[in-house]
Amino acid sequence: MVIIINNIIELLTTKIPLGNWVENFINFLINNFGGPLNAFSSLIESIVGGVETVLAFPHPLVFIAIFAAIAWKLKGKRMALFVTLGLSLVLNIEMWDPLIITLASIITSVLIALIIGIPVGIIKAHNRVVDLITRPILDFMQTIPPFVYLIPALMFFGLGNVSGVIATVVFAIAPPIRLTYLGIQQVDEELEEAGHAFGANWWQILFKIELPGAMPSIMMGINQCIMLSLSMVVISAMIGAGGLGKPVLRSLNTVDIGLGFEAGLGVVIIAMVLDRLFGRDS
């Protein structure tokens, strides 16, 4: 009996080499799939560079005018005034170049997250097996600390904007999936039954009944995706990503209160602009 108890205690106190298993698995992927990973990294880098080139092409004042016109069209003149004043302040405190890099990373990350997330949410709403499989995965993704996402991204793609974009996509993809699923689930069943009664096929039901009915929830998912992307893009400065996170990190390392305040103000302004444009009404 004593021997059995000692064996149980020894078994419980023996550390499972989980970290070594994960490290070996990642090394296996890097060693055997280095070519595809490099190709994917080059693709993401070219996309981010292209978006950054487009955003940096017009003069900052022209860019502000275009953004203000979009804000006026979408939300009204008060929002246009806020966008003009906010972006002008960013330009004045010399945070414009980091802002453009941050916007390019956000746009790329959000587009990738939505291209993957919304279709997965649709499939999740129509397939119970996919729902059961993705539910614990999404729970895990939304509870793990954001800094943990930086480690595999850094190991697979190295320092730079690509690692930041990949980590941001993984961090921000859960809300579009879940809110697309939730929106479709909340569509009135009587509307779907009426569609079937008039002979609508699956695609017609999806695009003419379910997605329009789920659009408020989907837009909330897009808004949450943008906000999470912004927060992760700033954190990604720790693995070499550019943008507004870089001066924030530099201010922490050098205890430069002024630089930290200016960079933080730039983050706050772009966060408020994006939130008001793609979220709640101003």
Account of the protein in words:
There is one protein chain. The protein is mainly α and 282 residues long. It has a domain at 92-281: MetI-like fold (Orthogonal Bundle). The protein is built from 14 helices and no strands. The chain has helices spanning 2-13, 18-32, 34-56, 60-75, 77-92, 96-126, 128-143, 150-157, 161-172, 174-185, 189-197, 202-235, 245-254, 257-278. Helix 6 (96-126) packs parallel to helix 9. It is globular. Pfam families: BPD_transp_1 (PF00528). It is a multi-pass membrane protein. It comes from Halanaerobium congolense.
List the helices and strands and how they pair.
Elements: H1 2-13, H2 18-32, H3 34-56, H4 60-75, H5 77-92, H6 96-126, H7 128-143, H8 150-157, H9 161-172, H10 174-185, H11 189-197, H12 202-235, H13 245-254, H14 257-278
Helix pairs in contact: 3-6, 3-9, 4-5, 5-14, 6-7, 6-9, 6-10, 6-12, 8-9, 9-12, 10-12, 11-12, 12-14, 13-14
Instruction: Give the percentage of residues in beta strands.
Output: under 5%
Shape from CA axes?
globular
Helix/strand order, N-terminal first:
HHHHHHHHHHHHHH
Q: Mind telling me which CATH architecture of one domain this is?
A: Orthogonal Bundle
Number of strands: 0
Judged by helices, strands and strand pairing, the structural class is mainly alpha
The biggest sheet amounts to: none
Low-pLDDT sequence parts: none
Q: What is the CATH homologous superfamily assignment of one domain?
A: MetI-like
DSSP helical segment count? 14
Q: Mean of residue pLDDT?
A: 83
The CATH topology of one domain turns out to be MetI-like fold
Helix share, percent: over 70%
CATH class of one domain: Mainly Alpha
Distance between the termini: 71 Å
Q: Mind telling me the C-alpha Rg?
A: 23 Å
Membrane topology: Multi-pass membrane protein
GO molecular function: amine transmembrane transporter activity; carnitine transmembrane transporter activity
Protein name: Glycine betaine/proline transport system permease protein
GO biological process, one term: choline transport
